[in-house]
Design goal:
By secondary structure, the protein is of the alpha/beta class. The chain has a single domain, classed as TIM Barrel (Alpha-Beta Barrel), CATH 3.20.20.70. Helices cover 42% and strands 13% of the residues. It has an 8-stranded parallel barrel with strand order 1-2-3-4-5-6-7-8, surrounded by 5 helices.
């Protein structure tokens, strides 16, 4: 297990009826998840809709998470952008706010060369005395960090891990704690000795995700039972179905900011059926 924990929830950002950050709901959700399997939280990541947060909102959420951190839980700040100067600035500010680590996504849209990636991550890692986790998600960024380049980046002081969301290249990397970037690859990651998962499904089945860490002999069975959860939460762009599920479960997650839109009638029905199958809605059998 990584020093930051094994089940790290990429937490949503709740919005109120005026589409403002709902700090009360955010704190309540952190506390609930801390009691239900989460070892820590990635704040203002993809699932947290960081791309539509202002800098003030992003840093405010990070500071709030640090201030309200449940005892023993880690706070990892999403500070990556496609502008190295801004990524450095956000990393510096998050460090000042007291986070335990930062998660820095591969610069998107620019499609940097391997040399550009090295220089980008050297600058980011130099901006903090906290661990820096790389985030490889080529489906969103247009740029992949192959295993050999990940191993080179591991030589940069301060870079300690990677959230690997390219399932075809999920494997051990010398010098890095490897976190599954998709819930569906959590089992594979645990089996090769990886650090854990940066999870979306832990919003609704966190205790079961935790069991996969604590009960290795049951991992395959638990994973098989959760496959429909993983699939349903990603019927469309994340966190659309995750917020729908949370709202159904009584958490005031609110809506989404454009260009993302709320779940359709069919998507909501699929989410409700999934929650009912797992006995998560009041009055449904477990």
């Amino acid at each position: 297990m990584g020093d930051l924990g094994a089940v790290l929830t990429a937490i949503v950002t709740p919005f109120d009826e005026r589409n403002r950050v709902n700090e009360e709901s955010f704190v309540g959700l952190i506390r609930h998840l801390a009691d239900n399997g989460s070892d820590g939280f990635v704040v203002a990541g993809t699932t947290g809709e960081a791309s539509t947060l202002s800098e003030e909102e992003q840093l405010g959420l990070i500071g709030l998470a640090v201030a309200e951190r449940p005892e023993g839980k880690s706070i990892i700040a999403g500070t990556g952008t496609n502008d190295t100067r801004q990524a450095v600035h956000l990393t510096e500010r998050a460090t000042e706010l007291g986070v335990d680590a930062v998660l820095s996504v591969t610069p998107y849209y620019n499609r940097p060369s391997p040399l550009g990636l090295k220089r980008h991550y050297q600058a980011v890692a130099s901006a903090t005395d906290k661990p820096t986790l790389l985030y490889n998600i080529p489906s969103r960024t247009g740029t992949n960090i192959p295993p050999d380049l990940l191993a080179e980046l591991a030589q940069i002081d301060g870079i300690t891990g990677v959230k690997q969301a390219n399932p075809q290249e999920l494997q051990p990397i010398d010098g890095l704690d490897v976190y599954a970037g998709d819930d569906g690859t959590f089992l594979r990651t645990l089996e090769f000795g990886g650090a854990g998962v940066i999870s979306v499904a832990s919003h609704v089945v966190g205790s079961e995700m935790r069991r996969m860490v604590d009960e290795p002999e049951q991992r395959a069975e638990i994973d098989a039972s959760l496959r429909d959860v993983y699939e349903t939460l990603f019927l469309t762009s994340n966190p659309t179905c995750t917020k729908a599920a949370l709202n159904m479960l009584g958490f005031d997650a609110g809506g989404l900011r454009l260009p993302l839109v709320g779940a359709t009638t069919d998507e909501e029905a699929a989410v409700r059926e999934m929650l009912e199958r797992h006995g998560l809605l009041a009055g449904t059998p477990a």
